[in-house]
Specification:
heterodimer; B: alpha+beta; Dna Ligase, domain 1; five-stranded mixed beta sheet; 14 helices
C-alpha cells in the first residue's frame, strides 16, 4: 500500500488508542483521589500532579496553567485543551483528520462514527465533565472510542490497511499501559510504608479497574492484591489484551502480516526490535525489576517502543528513495 | 390529480420541454403525462427529498473551503431531467468530434511546426502571451500523437434553440462524477420512466476513460500502472477524484507519494518503489513540477516534467493543452476547423469579440451594457461582467481594466440560455436557465459519453450555472430513438 496511507492509518489508530488511555489515566487518578479518604487530600495539588508528569508534557502544562496543579487545570489540559497535542480532544481531532484523508478506503461507518464523536466532544468542557461526574463522563468517552474500534474491526478488510491500524494501536497501548502503571508509582513514592495496607489494596484495585483488568486479574491470579502481582499481570500476562507483553506480541503479528509475501522485507529492523522486546518481557524477574526501580524499567520500555516506532517509520514510510527497493 | 405544470410560465426563452404554453415537445410528452399522474406537488417534493437524501448517504458532496469543520454540501440536484432526442444528439456528436479533431491538430501544430502561425491564421503574439502556452514542450513528441485526451466543452442553446459552444475545457474538466451519480439516483427515483424512454446509459464512461489511460502508456510496458494524481483531500473536487479512482480501480495519489528516479516515476509504497506509467492528473500544469513550473508548488513531483518529456510516463491531459482553451484562443477554433480539416464548423461558437483586436475593442467599449465580458484566464464564473445585470460603476471598473489589458478580455453578446422546468424549493415548477457539458475522450478513437452534465442556475433569473454561485445539476437523458407516440405511462413506486 502507499506509504502515506499506511502512515495515516497507523497514526489514526495510535491517536484513538491514546485518547482512550488518556481517559483511563484520568479515570484511575480520579478514583485514587476519591480513595484518599480525607477531603483535604482530594484538593491537594499532589493528588493531580503525577498525571502531568506521566504524560511527559509537564513543560507545556506549566507554561499554560502556571505552577499550581489543580484538578480543574489537569482535567482541562488532558481532556479539552486543543493546545495540548496529547489531550483527548486533540487526539480525536487528529484521528478524524487522518480518517478524512483515507475516508474512501475505510468504510463510511468508521468515518461517520468518528466524525459524530468528534463533533459532540468539541462542545464539551470542564463544566460538562463536572456536571456528569468523572466516572460517568469518562465511561461515556471510553464507550465511544470502543464503539469506534468495534466498527473498525467489523468493517475494515484484512489488508495492510488493517495491519497498520493494528500495529499502531498495539504499540500505543503498550506505551500507555506502562504510563498507567507509572501513575501508581508516582502516587506511591512519598508513602512507601503504606505498601500492603488496606488503602494500598484499594489503590491497586483502581489501577486494575482503569485497565478493565480487575476481574480478569482476580480470575487468573488468586490471592493477595499487591504491587508485585499487579505489575506482573499488567506487564507480562500473555492472555490479558492490555498487558504490555500481549500488546507487543500483537504488534509483532501485525507486522508479520505486513511483511509476509515480500522477500526483501523478511528481516526488518522493526521486526528485530519487537522480537527482542518481547523476549525481554518474557524473561524479566518482577521482584528485581521493582527493587531496581519500576519507574526506570517502565521508562526503558517506553524508549524501546519509541525506537520501534522510529524503525517502522524508516522502513515503511520515510525511507530513502535512492536506496529503496524498486519493485518490478 | 393535479396538473403540476398548470401555472408554468413559459417565458421568452427557448424552453426545453414546451414548444408553446401547455404544449410539450414530442420527446417530453411521456414525462409530461407521467407527471400528470402524480397526486400532487407534495408527491414530487417527496421524491425530491428522497433524491437529496440519497446523495447525502452516498457521500456525493463537495467540501466548502471556508469552514474548518469541513462542511460538506451536496451539489443541488433537480429531479426534472433534460432530454435530448437522438437526432439532436447525433448532430452534437458530429460537431464535438470535429471540434476535438481540430483542437488536437492545433495543439500538435503549436508544439510542432506552427503552420497555423506562419500561414497567418493565428497571430504569434496570441500564442506567446497565453499563460498556458508551455514553450518548453515545443518540438517534444507526445505519446500516440494525442495532444489532448479529455475535453469538457461547455455548450448552450440560444433563444431559438441553436446549440453552440461557449468554451472548451482542455485541462482538467470536472463534474463527470455528478453525471454518473445523478443517473444512479434517477434509476432509484424513476426506474420505469428511464426504461420506457430507452435512455442511453452513461456508465461506460469510467471504463472508456481507463482504456484511454492504458492506451497512453509507454509502448514497451505490458501491464501499465495508472494512477490518479489529486491535490489532496482539501480540494473541492476531491470527491470526484476518489470516485473516479475507485470506479477505475486505480490508486489515488498525492504529489508526495510520487518520486522520480533516473527520469522514471515511482510511487512510494510500504514495500518499496512501484513504477507508474500513466498519470491521470487533476492538478494544473503550474503545480505539476516545482523544478520547471511554479517553484512554490507543494502539490507536484520534482522531476516529473523530465520523465514526461522522455516519454517514460504519460500525463492525461498532456501538459500545455491550456493554450487551446484560453478564452481568447476560443475565438480561433472555427478558423482551426477550417484550416486543419477544410470543413465548416458543425457547432458554432458564440459570437465573440476580442478586445485585443483594434476594431473589436471599440465595439466592446461602446456596447458594455449589452455584453458579457470575461477575463481570459478565470474560471468558475469569476472575473466576469454581465452587462445587462451590472451597475454603471461595475461597468466603468471593467472599462478601465479592458483598456489597461486588452489581451485579457473577450466579450460576447448576452445570450438568453434555454430554460428547463425545475423543481423549486417552495414547491413549484419554474423554468430555470441551463447549460450543458459533454465529455469527449480522445484515445484510440474519439468517444463521447451519451449524456453529460446539465447545470442549472437555480436562482430565479440567473444565468450563472456554476456550483460556487448557486448552480445545481440535472440528469441528462440522451434517447436511443426518437419517441413520437408514447404508450400510456404506468404509475411507478419509489424504490430506494
Amino acid at each position: 500500500m502507499l506509504s502515506r496511507v499506511a502512515n495515516l492509518v497507523y497514526w489514526m489508530a495510535r491517536y484513538l488508542e491514546r485518547a482512550e488511555n488518556t481517559a483511563r489515566i484520568v479515570d484511575v487518578n480520579a478514583q485514587l483521589v476519591l480513595d484518599l479518604q480525607s477531603r483535604q487530600a482530594a484538593d491537594d495539588p499532589k493528588s493531580w500532579e503525577p498525571l502531568v508528569y506521566v504524560t511527559g508534557d509537564e513543560e507545556k502544562f506549566f507554561e499554560l496553567y502556571g505552577k499550581t496543579v489543580t484538578e480543574r487545570a489537569v482535567i482541562e489540559f488532558m481532556l479539552f485543551d486543543k493546545r495540548n497535542p496529547s489531550s483527548l480532544i486533540s487526539c480525536i481531532a487528529f484521528a478524524r483528520e487522518n480518517a478524512r484523508c483515507i475516508r474512501d478506503q475505510l468504510s463510511s461507518e468508521v468515518w461517520e462514527t468518528l466524525n459524530t464523536f468528534y463533533l459532540k466532544l468539541k462542545s464539551d468542557d470542564f463544566s460538562r465533565y463536572a456536571q456528569l461526574g468523572s466516572a460517568d463522563y469518562l465511561s461515556r468517552v471510553k464507550t465511544q472510542i470502543q464503539l469506534l474500534f468495534g466498527v473498525a474491526e467489523s468493517m475494515i478488510p484484512r489488508t495492510d490497511l488493517w495491519w497498520f491500524f493494528q500495529l499502531g494501536r498495539h504499540l500505543e497501548r503498550a506505551d500507555n499501559t506502562s504510563r498507567i502503571l507509572d501513575v501508581k508509582y508516582y502516587m506511591l513514592l512519598p508513602d512507601l510504608h503504606a505498601v500492603g495496607s488496606a488503602l494500598d489494596m484499594v489503590q491497586w484495585a483502581s489501577v486494575l479497574r482503569s485497565c478493565s483488568a480487575f476481574e480478569a486479574f482476580r480470575r487468573s491470579r488468586r490471592g493477595q492484591l499487591n504491587l508485585e502481582r499487579v505489575v506482573d499481570y499488567l506487564v507480562r500476562d500473555d492472555v490479558f489484551p492490555r498487558s504490555i507483553l500481549f500488546s507487543v506480541s500483537e504488534g509483532e503479528q501485525a507486522l508479520a502480516h505486513i511483511t509476509a509475501g515480500a522477500d526483501h522485507l523478511e528481516e526488518t529492523e522493526p521486526a528485530r526490535l519487537l522480537r527482542s522486546l518481547r523476549a525481554e518481557l518474557e524473561m524479566i524477574d518482577v521482584p528485581s525489576v521493582i527493587a531496581d526501580g519500576l519507574h526506570e524499567f517502565l521508562d526503558d520500555i517506553q524508549i524501546k517502543l519509541s525506537d520501534i516506532h522510529a524503525a517502522i517509520q524508516a522502513t515503511f514510510v520515510d525511507y530513502d528513495t535512492a536506496s529503496a527497493k524498486v519493485l518490478a | 390529480m393535479a396538473d403540476l405544470f398548470a401555472n408554468y410560465e413559459h417565458g421568452k426563452f427557448y424552453d426545453e420541454m414546451f414548444a408553446a404554453p401547455g404544449k410539450a415537445r414530442p420527446h417530453y410528452r411521456r414525462l409530461y403525462e407521467r407527471f400528470s399522474l402524480m397526486e400532487s406537488m407534495a408527491e414530487l417534493m417527496d421524491r425530491q427529498r428522497t433524491a437529496d437524501q440519497t446523495f447525502i448517504n452516498r457521500g456525493v458532496t463537495f467540501t466548502v473551503y471556508s469552514d474548518n469543520a469541513g462542511t460538506e454540501k451536496i451539489f443541488p440536484f433537480d429531479l426534472l431531467p433534460r432530454i435530448i432526442p437522438s437526432h439532436e444528439w447525433a448532430h452534437l456528436e458530429r460537431g464535438l468530434i470535429q471540434r476535438m479533431q481540430a483542437l488536437n491538430l492545433f495543439l500538435a501544430d503549436i508544439y510542432g511546426p506552427q503552420r497555423i502561425i506562419t500561414e497567418g491564421i493565428v497571430p504569434l503574439e496570441m500564442v506567446e502571451t497565453s499563460k498556458n502556452f508551455r514553450k518548453e514542450l515545443v518540438g517534444c513528441k507526445i505519446a500516440r500523437d494525442l495532444y489532448v485526451h479529455i475535453n469538457g466543452s461547455d455548450m448552450i442553446r440560444d433563444e431559438s434553440g441553436v446549440y453552440s459552444v461557449l468554451e472548451d475545457n482542455l485541462r482538467t474538466p470536472s463534474g463527470v462524477s455528478y453525471v454518473l451519480e445523478n443517473r444512479q439516483v434517477m434509476k432509484r427515483v424513476f426506474p420505469n420512466m428511464l426504461r420506457d424512454y430507452r435512455v442511453r446509459p452513461v456508465e461506460n464512461y469510467t471504463n472508456d476513460l481507463l482504456n484511454l489511460l492504458i492506451h497512453l502508456a509507454p509502448a514497451h510496458v505490458p501491464e501499465p500502472i495508472v494512477v490518479l494524481l489529486t491535490p489532496g483531500v482539501f480540494n473541492s473536487a476531491y470527491f470526484e477524484h476518489s470516485f473516479l479512482a475507485r470506479q477505475m480501480g486505480i490508486e489515488i495519489v498525492e504529489g508526495g507519494d510520487l518520486v522520480v528516479e533516473n527520469d522514471k516515476v515511482y510511487m512510494r509504497r510500504t514495500d518499496g518503489l512501484a513504477p507508474v506509467h500513466v498519470i491521470y492528473r487533476r492538478i494544473d500544469d503550474d503545480f505539476l513540477d516545482p523544478t520547471v513550473f511554479r517553484k512554490d508548488s507543494l502539490l507536484g513531483v520534482p522531476g516529473l516534467f523530465e520523465a514526461y518529456r522522455k516519454g517514460n510516463v504519460a500525463l492525461c491531459n498532456p501538459i500545455g493543452t491550456g493554450v487551446a482553451d484560453d478564452k481568447a484562443m476560443y475565438y480561433y477554433v472555427p478558423k482551426m476547423i477550417k484550416f486543419y480539416l477544410g470543413q465548416d464548423p458543425i457547432l458554432p461558437n458564440v459570437e465573440t469579440y476580442l478586445s485585443g483586436n483594434d476594431g473589436e475593442l471599440d465595439y466592446i467599449l461602446a456596447n458594455l451594457p449589452k455584453l458579457v465580458v470575461k477575463s481570459v484566464n478565470e474560471a468558475g464564473g469569476y472575473g466576469m461582467l454581465v452587462g445587462p445585470h451590472s451597475t454603471q460603476t461595475q461597468i466603468e471598473e471593467f472599462r478601465a481594466k479592458i483598456i489597461a489589458h486588452p489581451r485579457n478580455f473577450i466579450a460576447q453578446p448576452t445570450i438568453g440560455l434555454s430554460r428547463c422546468p425545475s423543481v423549486i424549493e417552495g414547491g413549484t415548477i419554474e423554468g430555470r436557465h441551463i447549460d450543458f457539458r459533454p465529455y469527449i475522450l480522445n484515445g484510440e478513437t474519439i468517444k463521447i459519453m451519451p449524456g453529460g452534465l446539465t447545470r442549472v442556475a437555480l436562482r430565479k433569473g440567473s444565468l450563472v450555472v456554476n456550483s460556487s454561485q448557486g448552480g445545481g445539476s440535472k440528469d441528462t437523458w440522451v434517447l436511443n430513438d426518437d419517441i413520437t407516440n408514447p404508450p400510456v405511462p404506468v404509475p411507478e413506486k419509489i424504490i430506494v
